[in-house]
Design brief:
Chain A: Belongs to the binding-protein-dependent transport system permease family. Chain A: InterPro entries: BP-dependent_transpt_permease, MetI-like, MetI-like_sf. The complex is a heterotrimer. Chain A is mainly alpha-helical. Helices cover about 75% and strands about 0% of the residues of chain A. Chain A is built from 12 helices and no strands. Chain A starts with a helix and ends in a 5-residue tail after the last helix. By secondary structure, chain B is mostly helical. Chain B has 13 helices and no strands. Classes of the chains: A mainly alpha, B mainly alpha, C alpha+beta.
Chain lengths: ~325, ~300, ~525
């Protein structure tokens, strides 16, 4: 067991090159990576090209149906209730969406995981205090916090990120705590401790690499949760304030038109789904790829028989390691 | 065990008070409710009278003291909106939410374990890919889509189910539970699958296999148990979310639960009701967390046993 | 040892706990669900549950729509179509001196608790609603801080005296719903005892409110023996309930909610407008306020977002209210002129670049968010720096009602005003006077003309009110009126009912009957 878990330290450089090759072998994961890259590019450069079109209202051409090229390619996804191009708005919204969701997820991920690992590693009173703080945040009505911060202060992006991040911190905190509490009793951590390694070093060198894949899985799933939370804040008018636009806001505003103009909330919703699913696929692929015990699965040749043969071989090869 | 419970109950008391205090102060930051409850043309004297009647003119600390004193006498205050006792309102709404939460989690856990294990049994296979894809999509689709589209298809279109409400017997449960279950099912399936993939390739599982344990037995007896810990964490968090009230579902389906009550009392600046709701949900969440920790302890004991074996 | 001793324990515990909770929960809730049923009765779905049915809160929309003229009744009621007052619990009334009105009450009416309705009961109710410390909504809405002197002369004669002559006192009293003398005077009650065609049979908070016909009603049997109210916040669900046959009437729908052929649109009394907080620069410059008026494209808004269910407005009250000017002048849409006015103001040193907030309330009316975005974009084109801020009701009200918050900077406020009373005085007092509770601006001259007009009666009153609207548009410009609105309800084919402009505040069940 120990041997397997300590394995990742071997030759970093070569394994990175191999990662790329592995990625290209897996067409689903490659697709997911391409989608994410595309979304990032659109968010970075798209608004430069269609920023004006996204704000251009034309009430006389409101709720035009999608998939018709007669009104020009910008209206290919239809127009919204104010006659603005849904496509252009999707593009502009991608930047706002990512600039709220990514910092919110990262912030809660970093803060939650660090505190969680620290608490789980030390256990005892520190752990209790941290866990009870997590309980406080979890049982606190997040909506009340949102209302206070966003009505009483201002509904700015920074405040939005803050509210979303705080409410999600306990999720990482608890996950990281649970895993690192289990790890700290393991042999290799004990060994490091007896050699006098500082606890922060043990956490970063030994605990983090093992906990990280799980945390990243949670984070990618959380990514969509944050986007949808932002959307539900828009129902109360405390999300992104128009004329700025995010996918969540588009979904929220289009909801009332689900029956008459489904495309208003369908396309932004689809954007959220596609982005999150791609992120999750890539994360679960990365989880396999960075886990030496699992990596062989990705190197399998296509076809059933070959795969089974190789798996048997791999299992045979690994079995003797068990104590 | 009893020692553990006692310790947990004591260490939970302080956070509970912290939640209450936090809600108390934050709620009072949202502005005094006079505008909502007094007529638009209320004179300054009427305003002052309203504020005094509701004890909002004291310092926040004095109000807090009064409130805590009231709680000790099981007096949770009165609703500004309805004039009823706040505790009555919260207690009336909570069972509806709990029922939804438990039915949802039961279905989600059972479903996730079955689908997740099946997918993990052959990682990267077609079955795995399809179930992963579906569960990821399920986890990221806005819930009101399901709710509204479900109403059209199954209530308006096919006429199989009532659109909303709680008076239609079991049939009225289908749409709310189905809407609620989708995200937890998606997330949990992902978690179970991930944990199972690791567990199935862990040394002791391989050992069990090499000793001739059947596939099904390996999955159910060995791997699943090891995958239970992360699933328990995530399921616990999801459950906490549900206990706090499923606002969207309760709103759309007219389900008289605590989520809707909390939103209404926040928007209505109905502080007493809000505090009663939070107290109730917070206590349940603390109890839930204790249950989860007991679950961990049991799992842990077995994990330890196994490693030493 | 690979198979541990008790593998299923935690799962078992969880399952038992879960099952126990579900079972216990079910029994708690189901006992409530099963009772009562709407079979054969009328089923109405509202957007929200009435917070209370306290009679003196009847000017709250969500209370009044259930309560008024159904459970309790006033002395006189206003006919929404003609604007005339009609007898209800009073059969006649006249102004017997400058400051006193005398009412003759209907004979043979009893409350549903058996107590008779007489002058004492009427005096009791008016005292309770207007002169007490209950803090009733009605008191402030209709009477301001005026106290009334109420006397029961004999069993059927009541006199009401006001400190100042009040030509529209009967109209004001049409908001006071009569309750039994057994009603508490020290606290508000959730379920009132009235004289109306229905009484409350069963109120399952959060779920359902059932009314039963009052067997001893003086006005004869209503069309339905029982009426069930439920509430759903989501418009499309309300509409679906009617199309699906789960409800007969659904109120407050938006055009896109999908009620289809069952949708009935009707004019309500609501008028939307932007209130310009004119004491703050740059809005204190009349050219800026005029520019704002020139860029609100009312005709296009009405044609598109409001789906022709509204009409462009040039005053704050719609047709049918005393004081409405039929020669209503709507500001033309002229962005070029607006830009020019802003540029002129800028040249004179007016800080037109200051950020102006455009404040609206979430869910104020259907498509509020879209409307606000259109207005913001037009204002920006005129050269103003406008930022949208959506608020919840309580936060928005702090900006709408005096005392206004301090240090807010300039803001424009989307308001929707519904004159429930039928007389422009209710609107003018609050929205037009310099010190009005919902007014931030005015002139001394305008105040004086309003006060003079309110002293008048009959045709003179109408003529004097009519002149005020053009004056406001030319000299004061505190408002950019937008449109006189409509509402939509869904009505099942089995119900005969025609909504009128007062339906949103008062939905008379007695006017509903099964289609035979």
């Amino acid at each position: 067991m120990t041997a397997v878990l300590e394995a990742p330290s071997e030759s970093r450089v070569s394994s990175q090159v191999a990662l790329w090759r592995l990625l290209l072998r897996d067409w689903v994961a490659t697709g997911a990576a391409l989608v994410l890259a595309f979304v990032a590019l659109v968010a970075a450069f798209g608004p430069m090209f269609v920023g004006d079109e996204a704000a251009q209202q034309n009430l006389l051409d409101a709720n035009a149906e999608p998939f018709r090229l007669s009104d020009g390619w910008l209206n290919v996804l239809g127009t919204d209730a104010l006659g603005r191009s849904v496509l252009a708005r999707l593009i502009v919204a991608s930047r706002t969406t990512l600039s709220v969701a990514v910092p919110a997820v990262l912030l809660s991920l970093v803060i939650g995981s660090l505190i969680g690992m620290w608490a789980g590693y030390h256990r005892g009173r520190r752990e209790t205090v941290v866990m009870r703080i997590a309980d406080i945040i979890l049982s606190f009505p997040s909506l009340l916090m949102a209302v206070v911060v966003l009505y009483i202060f201002s509904p700015s992006s920074a405040n939005l990120i803050l509210v979303l991040a705080i409410t999600r911190i306990p999720i990482y905190l608890r996950t990281a705590r649970a895993e690192s509490a289990e790890l700290q009793s393991r042999l290799f951590v004990d060994a490091a401790r007896t050699f006098g390694t500082r606890s922060s070093a043990i956490i970063f060198r030994h605990v983090l690499p093992i906990v990280l894949p799980t945390l990243l899985t949670v984070a990618t799933l959380d990514f969509c949760f944050v986007m949808l939370s932002e959307s539900s804040l828009s129902f109360l008018g405390i999300g992104i304030q128009p004329p700025s636009v995010s996918w969540g806001l588009m979904v929220a505003q289009g909801r009332t038109y689900l029956q008459t103009a489904w495309w208003l909330s369908f396309f932004p919703g689809l954007a959220i789904v596609v982005t999150t699913v791609s992120a999750t696929i890539l994360a679960s692929w990365a989880r396999l790829a960075t886990d030496p015990a699992q990596r062989w699965r990705l190197t399998l040749p296509r076809g059933r028989r070959g795969r089974r043969a190789i798996r048997r071989a791999a299992e045979k090869a690994l079995t003797p390691e068990v104590q | 065990m009893t020692g553990f419970l006692r310790r947990r109950a004591i260490t939970s008391l302080l956070p509970l008070v912290a939640v209450l205090l936090g809600v108390f102060f934050l709620a009072r930051l949202t502005g005094d409710p006079a505008n909502l409850y007094l007529p638009v043309s209320a004179t300054p004297e009427q305003r002052q009278q309203f504020i005094e009647q509701n004890g909002l003119d004291d310092s926040v600390w004095a109000q807090m003291g009064d409130y805590l004193w009231g709680i000790l006498h099981l007096d949770f205050g009165e609703s500004l909106r309805t004039g009823e006792s706040a505790a009555t309102m919260a207690l009336r709404a909570f069972p509806a939410t709990l029922q939804l939460a438990f039915s949802t989690m039961l279905i989600a856990v059972v479903g996730a374990v079955i689908i997740g294990s099946w997918a993990a049994y052959r990682p990267n296979s077609i079955a795995d890919r399809i179930s992963s894809f579906l569960s990821m999509t399920a986890a990221s689709v806005p819930d009101f889509w399901f709710a509204i589209i479900g109403v059209w298809i199954f209530a308006v279109g096919l006429g199989w189910l009532p659109t909303s409400g709680v008076t239609g017997g079991m049939a009225s449960w289908v749409l709310p539970v189905a809407t609620l279950v989708i995200r937890p099912l998606g997330v949990l399936t992902q978690v179970v699958r991930g944990a199972m993939v690791s567990a199935l390739s862990a040394p002791y599982v391989r050992l069990a296999r090499s000793k001739g344990a059947g596939d099904l037995r390996v999955v159910t007896h060995h791997a699943l148990r090891n995958a239970a810990a992360p699933a328990l964490t995530v399921a616990g968090d999801l459950m906490v979310g549900l206990v706090n009230g499923a606002v969207v579902v309760e709103t759309i389906f007219g389900w008289p639960g605590i989520g809707k009550l909390m939103i209404d009392s926040i928007l209505g600046r109905d502080f007493a009701v809000l505090q009663a709701c939070v107290l109730l949900t917070a206590v349940s969440i603390f109890v839930l967390n204790i249950l989860i920790d007991i679950g961990y302890a049991l799992l842990d004991a077995r994990v330890r046993e196994k490693v030493s074996a | 040892m690979l198979s541990p001793p008790s593998p299923r324990k935690p799962l078992l515990i969880a399952a038992v706990l879960g099952a126990a909770l579900i079972v216990s929960g079910c029994t708690v809730a189901n006992s409530e669900y099963v009772t009562g049923g709407g079979a054969g009765g009328l089923r109405i779905v509202l957007p929200e549950e009435p917070p209370t049915l306290e009679a003196c809160q009847s000017s709250l929309t969500s209370t009044g729509v259930v309560l008024r003229s159904n459970i309790t009744e006033p002395l006189v009621e206003r006919d929404a179509d003609t604007g005339e007052l009609a007898p209800k619990l009073a059969t006649a009334w006249e102004q017997t001196s400058d400051d006193t009105w005398t009412f003759t009450l209907r004979k043979g009416v009893t409350f549903t608790d058996g107590t008779p309705f007489d002058a004492d009961a009427a005096a009791f109710t008016i005292d309770r609603a207007v002169n007490s410390d209950l803090g009733c909504e009605v008191e402030g809405y209709v009477f301001g801080d005026t106290d009334l002197d109420v006397k029961a002369v004999d069993a059927t004669t009541l006199t009401v005296t006001t400190p100042e002559p009040d030509p529209i006192l009967p109209l004001r009293l049409s908001f006071v719903e009569m309750v039994s003398t057994k009603t508490s005077t020290t606290e508000k009650v959730r379920v009132p005892i009235g004289t109306g065609p229905y009484e409350v049979a069963d109120w399952q908070s959060g779920q359902r409110l059932s009314l039963e016909a009052n067997p001893n009603y003086w006005g004869g049997r209503p069309g339905y023996q029982s009426v069930n109210y439920v509430w759903r916040a989501e418009g499309s669900v309300r509409a679906a309930m009617v199309t699906n046959g789960e409800a007969d009437i659904a109120t407050s729908l938006a055009p896109e909610d999908g009620a289809g052929e069952l949708a009935v649109a009707y004019r309500n009394n609501e008028t939307t407008a932007l209130r310009i907080q004119a004491d703050q620069p740059p809005l204190d410059d009349i050219r800026v306020r005029q520019a704002i008026n020139y860029v609100v494209d009312r005709n296009t808004l009405v044609k598109t977002l409001f789906e022709n269910l509204a009409t462009p407005a040039g005053e704050l009250i719609p047709e049918g209210i005393v004081g409405y000017n039929p020669d209503e002048k709507v500001w033309p849409y002229d962005p070029a002129k607006a830009r020019e006015l802003v540029a002129q103001a800028k040249a004179d040193g007016v800080p037109v670049d200051t950020q102006i907030r455009l404040i609206a309330r979430t869910g104020q009316f259907p498509r509020i968010a879209e409307t606000i975005e259109v207005i913001q974009s037009e204002l920006a084109k005129a050269g103003l720096n406008v930022k949208i801020q959506m608020m919840d009701t309580n936060t928005q009200l702090t900006y709408q009602i005096r005392p206004f918050p301090e240090d807010t900077g300039p803001y424009l406020l989307m308001i929707m005003h519904g004159n429930q009373a039928g007389d422009a005085a209710f609107t003018l007092d609050q929205y037009m006077l310099r010190e009005g509770y919902q007014s931030s601006w005015g002139t001394e001259e305008f105040d004086a003309s309003i006060r003079d007009a309110e002293e008048l009666k009959g045709d003179e009153r109408q003529a004097a009110f009519e002149k005020l609207w053009p004056y406001e548009q030319e000299k004061v410009v505190q408002y950019a009126y937008i449109a006189h609105m409509s509402a939509i309800l869904a009505r099942s084919a089995s119900v005969s009912y025609q909504p009128d402009s007062a339906t949103g505040d008062e939905m008379r069940l007695a006017e509903m009957s099964p289609v035979s």
